[in-house]
Write a structure and sequence with these properties.
alpha/beta, metal-binding, metal ion binding, Beta-lactamase-like protein, POD-like_MBL-fold, sulfur dioxygenase activity
Length: 296
């Protein structure tokens, strides 16, 4: 099987890596974890980052067959629906949107939490992958790998000598993703990390985010399994599960909620589709209030 051509694009506001992955023999391609720009202070959604991905696709003459999500992101809004609609309109084909099959439970949980009708999030994903399910993009074979821990539904995608891991592990000097979201598990993050680091040494591990410490380096989209096994801050060889779990839980206890968690979850369970407009024409997301005990 030929190795894919990978185009990476960094979105600096949310620290997100996005990917266009193409079959060099057929020009079929997938987009992985695309991002919509969102100004929280103004409540304004824009599409600069997604349009850059579309420009790569157009300039290279790729046909995007699928848009793949690794999970329901809590720190940025997916551009999957926007890209799907734009390519369907401008290039006369409609890519499918795929995600792990366990997403149904996540949609139901957050739909109930935010008061979103099931009709707004059911059937928004065209493909829901089972664990270890394989599918084709041109002459490339993609294998969906269940990587729970950050979220219970989290999927990675192995394509040739590459694996796109979303938020399961990060660059070696950051280590691993938080495990304190609903359904998260530090033990599962550890086991998913060991699953990834059991892949061949030369496998490239492409991450969903990077947060360069104090700006001391540029964002890095991948390193090899060998580098992770030797250098990963949390998961390098010799790290025992109990040690990892203690470190991860202590770290998670210091973390604030992601700044964009509420709009992200509400949009992303819909696959990035906009909420239905109100009678006044506004599209709304809900913001829960934390209030003290009081008589009013």
């Amino acid at each position: 099987m030929p190795e894919p051509k990978v185009h990476e694009l960094f979105e600096p506001v949310t620290g997100s890596w996005q990917y266009v992955v193409a079959d060099p023999t057929s020009s079929s391609a997938v987009i992985i974890d695309p991002v919509l720009n969102y100004d929280a202070a103004k409540g304004v959604i824009s599409t600069q980052s997604a349009d850059e991905l579309i420009k790569i696709v157009t300039d290279k003459g790729y046909k995007v067959e699928m848009i793949l999500e690794t999970h329901i992101h809590a720190d940025h809004i997916t551009a999957a629906s926007y890209i799907q609609a734009t390519l369907a309109k401008d290039q006369d084909y409609k890519p499918l949107v795929g995600i792990g099959g366990r997403i149904r439970n996540t949609q139901k949980m957050f739909g109930e939490r935010y008061g979103i009708a099931a009709s707004e999030y059911e059937n928004v994903f065209d493909r829901m992958w089972e664990d270890d399910e394989a599918f084709s993009i041109g002459s490339l074979t993609v294998r969906a790998i269940h990587l729970p821990g950050h979220t219970p539904d989290h999927m990675g995608y192995k394509i040739g000598g590459n694996v796109f891991v979303g938020d399961s592990i990060f660059h070696v000097d950051i280590g691993s993703a938080r495990a304190d979201f609903p359904g998260g598990s530090a033990e599962a993050v550890y086991n998913s990390g060991r699953k990834l680091l059991a892949l061949p040494d030369e496998t490239k591990v492409w991450v969903g985010h990077d947060y360069p410490p104090d700006g001391r380096r540029a964002p890095v989209p991948f390193v090899t399994v060998k580098q992770h096994r030797e250098e990963n801050k949390h998961l390098k060889d010799g790290t025992h599960e109990a040690e990892f779990v203690e470190t991860r839980r202590k770290r998670d206890a210091t973390l604030a909620a992601p700044r964009l968690i509420h709009p992200s979850l509400q949009m992303n369970i819909r696959g990035g589709r906009l909420p239905a407009p109100t009678a006044s024409g506004l599209r709304m997301v809900h913001l829960p209030l934390q209030v003290p005990d009081s008589p009013w």
